[in-house]
């Protein structure tokens, strides 16, 4: 597809290296795209490819939409041997032996330059290289992305994260404090078997979380079931675990909080505002029960909450009893926090949904909000349609009020702005919608939806809402600001 790469392919490529059939969306004159497939080129970094790659990044950063790029990602960026004689990596030594050259120094130069230029423009760099971490090369990046190497293991044993990956791997290869850069784990459950995404197989993702969170390893959602991960993330965010001031104490680093059963591992977070989150992990093949002693951090009688299953826990004399399922975990936090109100001043971009033929653009305006503040900006072009989306936690049987400020430029007769919610059971939409529309206006107005969630039918299994903000207008721009959700 790329003329330069095609012309120089035989000079750039690493003989015998991987090549994948990759999709590319070619833009057409009518605003649509045509999907084409081309084989990838594994190029050696010893030639001008580094200059070529950095020139491409320069063009992206200086594009009119370049401010929306937040990270550069290099896939399969480990070390390897190149034996291409056309650019000098392959040669014969004085004894007539065929010699290849490791690419580590050339690839180090690529990463070094990439990081330097990315940081100059306020971007970060993440490297994927299976488990091939090289401090002098990979360690120059901001993030390392290991974990895919367990795909074959998980095909054989989907509980492999607990049963077969040893603790020492989590303490070293997945430990950001050991590697010296950020580590984000790449799950491989879905690659091993797509059936691992199903509800009846959430236990495999829970087993993965059991090991990762007990070692305080961040993970992506790729190739893992979404519902268990999102429930954990929602609970952690509720107590401020992600905040810079939060301190983490891994189970092997403290003896402050004690368990009567050594099979129950306790990693805990001391969060701002005197909040605590305990992650109780059980990697055994049997459920484990024990008494947890909190007196070293807080004694007395009070209420805590098990956040993964959403149940209250009574602490008596600084202690409580709990049962942790096999190859799984529980999250106990105190003092209990409420999910609501949820407030969002639109300083960060939301996700979006649109149909295949929709040409709407989902952007963030730096000054389109109230008092010139940031806001979401939906640019409806010739087709119109599409919506900003967000996932929100709920509980069946409860009532909620959702509000957002909205205004529209280029209003035409019949234009409306809308808000709607649909019930989600994990990642699957199963109920709804409940919606509200108001006539579009050039002035700021409040779009309000009252969502009374039934405790019956398909709503009964819902643990979240899929929220959509949109308009039916064409050739107009709609701004959304100051989102609020409260529980009545």
Rough outline: globular
Beginning-to-end CA distance, first to last residue: 56 Å
CATH class category label of the largest domain: Mainly Beta
Number of strands: 31
Return residue spans where pLDDT drops below 50 for at least 5 consecutive residues: none
Total number of helices: 10
What is the total domain count?
Answer: 3
Strand content is 35-45%
The helical percent reads 10-25%
> What is the structural class?
alpha+beta
CATH topology of the largest domain: Immunoglobulin-like
Concise structural overview:
The protein has 488 residues and is an alpha+beta fold. Helix content is 18%, strand content 35%. Helix 2 packs parallel to helix 3 (104-120).
Task: Note down, in words, how this protein is organized.
There is one protein chain. The model has no long low-confidence stretch (mean pLDDT 94). It is globular, with a radius of gyration of 26 Å. It has 3 domains: 3-145, no CATH class; 182-337, Immunoglobulin-like (Sandwich); 342-487, Jelly Rolls. The chain is of the alpha+beta class and 488 residues long. It contains 10 helices and 31 strands. Helix 2 (49-61) packs parallel to helix 3 (104-120).
What's the structural blueprint in terms of helices and strands?
Layout: H1 3-12, E1 21-27, E2 33-39, H2 49-61, E3 71-74, E4 81-82, E5 91-92, E6 98-99, E7 101-102, H3 104-120, E8 124-127, E9 143-144, H4 151-156, H5 160-163, H6 167-171, H7 176-179, E10 182-185, H8 189-192, H9 202-214, E11 218-219, H10 226-239, E12 247-249, E13 258-259, E14 265-271, E15 275-282, E16 288-293, E17 302-306, E18 311-315, E19 319-324, E20 328-334, E21 342-344, E22 351-353, E23 361-365, E24 375-380, E25 387-393, E26 399-409, E27 416-425, E28 428-439, E29 445-452, E30 464-471, E31 476-487
Helix pairs in contact: 2-3
């Amino acid at each position: 597809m790329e003329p330069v790469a095609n012309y120089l392919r035989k000079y750039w490529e690493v003989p015998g290296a991987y090549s994948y059939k990759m999709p590319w969306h070619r833009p057409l004159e009518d605003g649509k795209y045509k999907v084409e497939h081309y084989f990838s080129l594994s190029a050696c970094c010893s030639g001008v490819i580094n200059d070529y790659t950095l020139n491409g990044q320069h063009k992206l950063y200086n594009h009119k939409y370049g401010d929306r790029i937040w990270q550069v990602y290099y896939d399969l960026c480990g070390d390897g041997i190149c034996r291409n004689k056309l650019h000098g990596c392959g040669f014969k030594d004085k004894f007539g032996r065929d010699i290849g050259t490791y690419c580590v120094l050339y690839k180090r130069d690529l990463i070094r330059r990439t990081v330097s230029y990315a940081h100059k423009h306020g971007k970060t760099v993440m490297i994927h290289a299976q488990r091939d971490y090289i401090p002098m090369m990979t360690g120059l990046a901001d993030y390392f992305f290991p974990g895919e190497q367990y795909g074959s293991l998980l095909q054989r044993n989907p509980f492999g994260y607990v049963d077969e990956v040893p603790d020492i791997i989590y303490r070293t290869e997945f430990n950001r404090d050991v590697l010296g850069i950020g580590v984000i784990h790449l799950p491989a459950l879905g690659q091993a078997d797509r059936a691992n995404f199903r509800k009846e197989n959430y236990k495999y993702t829970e087993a993965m979380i059991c090991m990762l969170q007990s070692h305080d390893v961040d993970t992506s959602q790729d190739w893992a079931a979404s519902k268990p991960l999102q429930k954990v993330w929602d609970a952690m965010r509720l107590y401020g675990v992600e905040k810079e001031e939060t301190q983490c104490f891994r189970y092997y680093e403290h003896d402050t909080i004690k368990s009567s059963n050594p099979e129950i591992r306790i990693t805990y977070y001391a969060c701002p505002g005197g909040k605590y989150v305990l992650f109780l992990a059980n990697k055994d093949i049997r459920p484990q029960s024990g008494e947890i002693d909190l007196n070293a951090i807080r004694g007395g009688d009070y209420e805590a909450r098990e956040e993964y299953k959403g149940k209250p826990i009574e602490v008596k004399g600084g202690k409580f009893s709990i049962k942790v399922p096999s190859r799984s975990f529980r999250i106990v936090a105190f003092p209990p926090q409420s999910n609501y109100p949820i407030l969002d001043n639109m300083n960060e971009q939301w996700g979006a949904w649109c149909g295949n033929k929709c040409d709407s653009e989902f952007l963030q305006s730096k000054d389109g909000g109230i008092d010139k503040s940031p806001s979401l900006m939906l640019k409806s072009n010739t087709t119109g349609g599409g919506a900003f989306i967000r996932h929100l936690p709920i509980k069946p049987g409860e009532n909620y009020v959702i509000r957002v400020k909205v205004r529209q430029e280029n209003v035409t007769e019949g234009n409306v702005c809308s808000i709607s919610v649909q019930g989600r059971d994990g990642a699957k939409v199963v109920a709804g919608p409940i919606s509200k529309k108001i006539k579009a206006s050039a002035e700021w107005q409040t779009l309000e939806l009252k969502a009374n969630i039934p405790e019956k039918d398909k709503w009964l299994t819902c643990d979240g809402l899929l929220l959509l903000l949109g308009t039916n207008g064409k050739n107009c721009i709609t701004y959304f600001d100051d989102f609020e959700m409260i529980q009545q």
